[in-house]
Design a protein that fits this description.
This protein is α/β, with parallel strands linked by helices. The protein folds into three domains: 144 residues, NAD(P)-binding Rossmann-like Domain (Rossmann fold); 137 residues, no CATH class; 75 residues, Orthogonal Bundle (Rna Polymerase Sigma Factor, Chain: A), CATH 1.10.1740. Helix content is 47%, strand content 15%. The strands form two sheets. Strands 4-3-2-1-5-6-7 form a seven-stranded parallel β-sheet, with helices on both faces. β6, α6 and β7 form a beta-alpha-beta unit. α6 packs antiparallel against α14, α10 packs parallel to α13 and α14 crosses α17. Bound molecules: nicotinamide-adenine-dinucleotide and magnesium ion (MG). Nicotinamide-adenine-dinucleotide (NAD) binds next to α1, α6 and α9. InterPro entries: DXP_reductoisomerase (IPR003821), DXP_reductoisomerase_C (IPR013644), DXP_reductoisomerase_N (IPR013512), DXPR_C (IPR026877), DXPR_C_sf (IPR036169), NAD(P)-bd_dom_sf (IPR036291). Keywords: Isomerase, Isoprene biosynthesis, Magnesium, Manganese, Metal-binding, NADP, Oxidoreductase. Pfam families: DXP_redisom_C, DXP_reductoisom, DXPR_C. Its EC number is 1.1.1.267.
Length: 390
């Protein structure tokens, strides 16, 4: 039986992962499940899957979790330290599906035990890619991408020589506002930004899709995970979300990964890897789709992509600055403190201010340094927002 742990089990990726495990219970032993504030969901899943351990990220919810699991054999724990302990519990396969940089310490801890880490938490790679890769190498752990575009690239590269790759293209749906008049973007509301045309995902990544900050993160993620140069990584807007990524080889051939927009495909690929097993996905009917379209992303609509290029050029800990500023701006957009288009402006300002300190950005990429830069960048984002709002 495969021992599996799911970090961020109550979220969108976590629930899709449990959906696959539910279909083949004889193959899996659930070790640990972690969640945030949704204690009812966490407790129900821990009972259904017979988890050894259930952890909420929030100390103050420990007693609620304990009460919800009273009379069962499930151990309970709470807090950031408990998340790391859950990730360290021996397991063959760990899903990293916490949202935000909060997912980094547990991702890191899971790798330390030499497991196979299915990595949905792109923030880990953007903030500390080299650290994760080095840790995996030392601990003989494996990292498998779960982000759909990166899983697509990974699959298109099986059996290929990395030196034969000319370029890679990741696609973007264009998000909720791809066809809005540019001048309307400033007035976009939270509800409008939270509705994705093709994918059903958590609220934060859905808003990041509308602003293209999700794709900006993914360009950096592709660089960190596969080691492509920034010039090799391209983005195309593809409204149908059927082609997830393409690899262009030196002989002019192109390998495209094509499939329905359903996260259970990349999750299932990582769960069954290195095998390919049947998955409960809708089968594509290309004739019914009729056509697939592609276009260049408009730089005026999506400043996030330019900022990602600046981060990749700057390297060092600038990925941690970028991610923290983005996370904080998202909080401020959700709370109504800033408008939709202000997010990119504030993030750019934070990058300028924090990156001015070379010794900070060029420091060695360690967990402590990443979390320190993350903290400073969040403070800086709050400061910039305060200044703007007078
Ligand atoms: P979500 O918001 O639906 O779920 C997030 C999970 O993390 C929940 O279990 C929540 O309780 C937990 N969590 C939130 N804050 C936490 C904290 N501070 N500490 C510990 N746990 C916390 O998010 P999601 O859409 O499932 O995305 C999860 C990750 O996967 C993100 O990094 C996202 O970018 C990535 N991802 C998601 C999708 C998708 O389809 N949803 C696709 C590709 C990549
Ligand atoms: Mg993606």
């Amino acid at each position: 039986m495969k021992r599996v742990t799911i970090l961020g089990a109550t979220g969108s990726v976590g629930q899709n992962t449990l959906d696959l495990i539910r279909r083949a219970p004889e193959r899996y032993k659930v070790v640990a499940l972690t969640g945030g504030r949704n204690i009812a969901q966490l407790a129900a899943d821990a009972l259904e899957f017979g988890a050894e351990l259930a952890v909420t990220a929030h100390d103050e919810l420990l007693e609620d979790l304990r009460a919800a699991l009273k009379g069962s054999d499930v151990e309970v724990a709470a807090g950031a330290g408990a998340l790391v302990e859950a990730a360290e519990r021996p397991a063959h396969w760990v899903m990293s599906a916490i949202v935000g940089v909060a997912g980094l310490p547990p991702s890191f801890a899971a790798l330390g035990q030499g497991t196979t880490l299915a990595l949905a938490n792109k923030e880990s790679l953007v903030t500390a890619g080299q650290l994760l890769k080095n840790t995996a190498r030392q601990a003989r752990a494996t990292i498998l991408p779960v982000d759909s575009e990166h899983s697509a690239l990974f699959q298109a590269l099986v059996g290929e020589d990395a030196a034969a790759v000319d370029r890679v293209i990741i696609t973007a749906s264009g998000g909720a506002f791809r066809d809005w008049p540019l001048e309307d973007l400033a007035k976009a509301t939270l509800a409008e930004a939270s509705a994705h045309p093709n994918w059903d995902m958590g609220q934060r990544i859905t808003i990041d899709s509308a602003s293209m900050f999700n794709k900006a993160m993914e360009v950096i993620e592709a660089r960190e995970f596969f080691g492509f140069t920034p010039e090799q990584i391209e983005v195309l807007v593809h409204p149908e979300s059927i082609v997830h990524a393409m690899v262009g080889f030196c002989d002019g051939g192109f390998m495209a990964h094509v499939g329905p927009p359903d996260m259970r495909h990349p999750i299932g690929y990582a769960l069954n890897w290195p095998q390919r097993d049947a998955l409960p996905l809708e089968r594509l009917d290309l004739a019914a789709l009729g056509q697939l379209t592609f276009r260049e992303p408009d730089p005026a609509r999506y400043p996030a992509l330019r900022l990602a290029r600046e981060v990749m050029a700057r390297r060092g800990l600038s990925g941690a600055v970028f991610n923290a500023a983005k996370e904080r701006c998202l909080d401020h957009f959700i709370s109504g403190a800033i408008g939709f288009t202000h997010m990119a402006e504030v993030i750019e300002e934070v990058l300028t201010r924090v990156s001015a300190d070379n010794s900070l950005i060029d420091a060695e990429i360690t967990l402590d340094h990443v979390l320190h830069v993350d903290h400073l960048s969040r403070q800086c984002a709050d400061e910039v927002v305060r200044e703007r709002n007078g």
